[in-house]
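Question thread 4412

I'm putting together a teaching handout and wanted feedback from people who do this every day. The idea is simple: show students a protein as raw sequence, then show them the C-alpha cells that encode its fold, then repeat with a second protein so they can compare. Below is the first pair exactly as I plan to print it.
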Amino acid sequence: MKTLILLVHPNYGASVANKALLEAFNTGEVTLHNVCEAAKGGKIDVAAEQKLLEAHDRIIFQYPTYWFNVPAFLKQYLDEVFAYGWAYGGGEALKGKEFGIVTTVGQPVTNYSKEVLGFTIEEIVLPMKASISYVKGKFIGLVYLGRDKTFQAFIPEELKKAKEAYRKLAL
C-alpha cells in the first residue's frame, strides 16, 4: 500500500506540532507532499496533483485547524484538484482510495467538547469526511494533537500517542 501525506500548512516553517508528528515516519515509508510549497505563487498544478493522487492507495490530509476549519489553501486544493469529471460527476479517480485526517489545534483538545465549545473535533472534520465520501473514498480515521493549558506547547505524552496513532493510520 502506497501512502501519500498531503501536508497543507501555510506556515510550516514555524510549525512545531506538525513537524513533530511527521517524525513518526522513517525516510521512504510514506510520500510526503507539501502542497503549499509545491504551489508556485499559490498556483496549483492540477494535473500533477491528480497524477500524484492516482499513484497512491492511501491519502492522509495533514493540516492545522484554523478557526475550526481547514486552512484556506486546502479548500482551494479541493476545489481545483477534486475536479468534476475526474473525482466526481462521472469521474471516479479516487473511488476506493483510503483517506485519513491528521490535524493540530492551537488549544487543549479537551476544549473540543460539547461542554466547552459545544462541539467535538470529530464534528469539525465532518466537511472533510463528506468530501471523501462524495468522491467515493473510504475514511479510515482521524488523529489530532493539541496544546497544553498554557496554549504554548504540546504535551509530550499526547505527542507520543498521536505519533503512534498516525503510524497506524498511514501504514
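The second pair follows. I'd like the answer to focus on this one:
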Amino acid sequence: MKVKVFKIRIPEEFLYKDQKMLDDFLEANEIMKVETAFVSEERYWSVILYFEDLKPAKNTVKEPKTVKYSAESETLNMDEEKILDALKLWRSEKAKEQNLPTYFIASNKELVSVAKYKPAKKEELLEIKGFGKHKIENYGEEILEILESI
C-alpha cells in the first residue's frame, strides 16, 4: 500500500487547483483509506490517502474531453432558488456529518449549475463541470433525490 499527502488550501485562488489535483488522483488510484486534518496555523486541509495503483489498460485510446455544463450566470428563477437552497442545506449537513469543509462536497458554482441544469440521472451529473466519478458515486443519489423532491 502506498501513501500520498495532499494539501488543500482554503483561499479560492488555490482551492480549484488543489481540489482538481486530488480529484484526478482519486480517479486514477484505488483508495484504501483516507485521513483528513485541518492545519489551523496555516489554514489548510491535509488529506492523507492510502492507495494501490490502478493498472491502466494497454492500448486504450482516451475519449476527447467534452465541454461540461457550467452555469454562465448566477441569476436563478424561483424554482432554481428553491433547489439551490435545498442543495446548500444538504451540503452543510453532509459536510458536518463527514467532518469536511462544505467545498469538499460541492462548490457554490457546482450547486448553481445543478439547480439550472436539473439532471435526472447520474449520467447527466457527469455533464456538469466539477462532477466526476468520485463525487457522483459519493453524492449523486442524494443530489438526484433532492431534485426529485422539489
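Top answer:
Good format. For the second protein you could add a caption like this: The longest strand covers residues 29-39. The chain has a mean pLDDT of 87.
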